Amino acid sequence: MSDLQDLYQELIIDHSKRPRNFGSMNDANRTADGFNPLCGDKLKLFLKIEDGVIRDVKFIGAGCAISTASASVMTDMLKGQTIEQAASLFETFHYMITGPKDPQHVGSGLGKLAVFAGVSEFPARVKCATLAWHTMRNAISGKTEAASTEQVK
Amino acid sequence: MTAHPATLDIERTIGLDPEALRRDFPVLHQEVHGKPLVYLDNAATTQKPRSVIDALVRYYEHDNANVHRGIHELSQRATNDYEDARTVVQAFLGAAESEEIIYTRGTTESINLVTASWGRANVGAGDEVLISAMEHHSNIVPWQILCEEKGAQLKIVPINDDGEFLLDEYERLLSDRTRIVAVNHVSNALGSVNPVREIVKLAHERGALVLIDGAQAVAHMKVDVRSLDCDFYAFSSHKIFGPTGIGILYGKRAILEAMPPCESGGDMIKHVTFEKTIYNDLPYKFEAGTPNIADAIALGAALRYVNNVGLEAIGAYEEDLLAYATERLAAFEGVRLIGTAKHKASVQSFNLDSIHPHDLGTVLDREGIAVRAGHHCAQPVMDRFGVTATVRASFAFYNTRAEVDRLVETLHKAREIFA
Ligand SMILES: Cc1ncc(COP(=O)(O)O)c(C=O)c1O
């Protein structure tokens, strides 16, 4: 049985209370909205991408501790990454949370993102953790409709 | 856990023993995440007593057949039980005739039947439809669609900060253009019990009909549609200890008879030629196709169960339990109660500090406590109170003060995590 401490790790609580990169951005060249219709959580993501590199990224929105911390940690990690690196981070993150369990590899190569590994034991909260990431993927691929946690995959 | 002598007093005076009744509900006797289950999500759906589960099994093991069309024994039995359940519903609601009881899939379909059939035929451009600010989405959206289609206006009766329906505002909003008023009897997000008797009286004075969404009412209080004089009354079986997939629309005979059918096909017709079809009588005119036979029969079993426990005893017991829960939550530092109407039933919504309801819901779940965390399909209510969501504890007669204590104790744990 997994513990609440696995889900609400210190770093997650910290980022949820003091989200990094929180605010809007006037000179963003990519933005996207994310929405979780089940709980009403909303998120807006701003990206400044130059020569295929994410120079700056910010977000605004209201959500639970998991979704806020996930957006905060994500924005921290994305700065300076290329679009390809961002896409591969998405895949790694998504796999960690929704893929089959592999104790050997949990958290490896994920840096700070590893604190979200515990989310996979809380199926009701997976969408909270992935909302920011889906929104980011929409933003870089130039999709205009809001990323919704309820899209049929 | 402390003993509460008051609980015993209540049992003595009203004769409802929750511990004995809990034995009738198999699902309650399990551990969730290693803790005894505390089920406080009854407004979402209620648990099923053994007698309801048995009715389903018995039907499929002994009687399964199609209704109204067989000359053989099983079809006869299925038809008898299916129609028998209808008379149980009729008596339960105090309706004059069983033809006024229409089986639907649930409250949502009942409301949609009224908007699609009665609404299309009776609401026109410039007409007005009144709903309240505390409706479930299923009593908002069908009216929105109807009004948009017809060029009619949807008007909203406001509520106050306690979540109470404002009767004087309602009176002001009623006009000669008001065709129908649709309100919930009990609000699922706030627990407010609405003054439906007065609402009906005032509407009728202006020549408007009234639909009451009773989804959250029937399991907690005696409803008598004739004494209320409402024109339509809707509820869902699954919120009154019956199965999902079945619900009821009550309508006054004269109104139902004048309404065009909604869906068409088998069972709803008397005679079909390629030139003309004669529709069947009530209630079959509104029950096209093979109905949900097993679940209708099990709904009958659920209502019989409720009748045996007694709605008076249920109401008194739950009133005491809700008062206790409200008092304990209100005394908890950092709790904001949402929905503090004077007259309430079985629901308490709240938030704790700035902890998101989903996070609180997860902490409670890990302690085996099931609550709803979200907007409760009532986003306009959330907007009215300036929140995106709440945690909602909703009670049934099988809940106890000891369970309320566990809920409150777990709030301490949540505060530690998110401190
Ligand atoms: C007040 C109210 N109305 C309508 C509904 C819809 O009921 P159903 O989903 O069973 O159709 C609900 C259910 O949550 C409710 O609480």
Q: What's the β-strand tally of chain B?
A: 17
CATH topology of chain A: Sufe protein. Chain: A
Number of strands of chain A: 4
Rg of chain A: 14 Å
- Enumerate how many helices of chain B there are, as a single number: 15
Shape category of chain B: globular
Architecture per CATH nomenclature, i.e. the level-2 architecture of chain A: Alpha-Beta Complex
CATH structural class of chain A: Alpha Beta
Judging by the overall fold, what is the CATH architecture of the largest domain in chain B? Answer: 3-Layer(aba) Sandwich
The CATH class of the largest domain in chain B: Alpha Beta
The Cα radius of gyration of chain B reads 22 Å
Number of domains of chain B: 2
The overall average pLDDT of chain B, rounded, is 95
Structural class, judged by helices and strands of chain B? alpha/beta
Annotation field: number of helices of chain A: 5
Low-pLDDT windows of residues of chain B: 1-8
Overview of the structural elements:
Chain A has 153 residues and is α+β, with helices and mostly antiparallel strands. Helix content of chain A is 37%, strand content 19%. Chain A has a single domain (2-146), classed as Sufe protein. Chain: A, CATH 3.90.1010.10. In chain A, strands 3-2-1-4 form a four-stranded mixed beta sheet, covered by helices on one side. The longest helix of chain A is centred in the middle third of the chain and has 16 residues, at 83-98. Chain B is an alpha/beta fold and 419 residues long. Chain B folds into two domains: 5-48 and 310-409, Aspartate Aminotransferase, domain 1 (Alpha-Beta Complex), CATH 3.90.1150; 54-307, Type I PLP-dependent aspartate aminotransferase-like (Major domain) (Aspartate Aminotransferase, domain 2, 3-Layer(aba) Sandwich). In chain B, 42% of the residues lie in helices and 16% in strands. Chain B has helices at residues 5-14, 18-22, 50-63, 73-93, 107-122, 141-150, 167-173, 196-205, 225-228, 253-258, 293-309, 311-330, 357-366, 379-384, 401-418, and strands spanning 31-32, 35-36, 38-39, 101-104, 128-132, 153-157, 178-184, 209-213, 232-236, 247-251, 269-272, 277-279, 335-338, 347-352, 369-370, 372-374, 390-394. In chain B, helix 9 links the parallel strand 8 (209-213) and strand 9. Chain B is globular, with a radius of gyration of 22 Å. The model of chain B is unreliable at 1-8 (pLDDT under 50). The interface between A and B is medium-sized, with 19 and 21 residues. The structure holds pyridoxal-5'-phosphate.
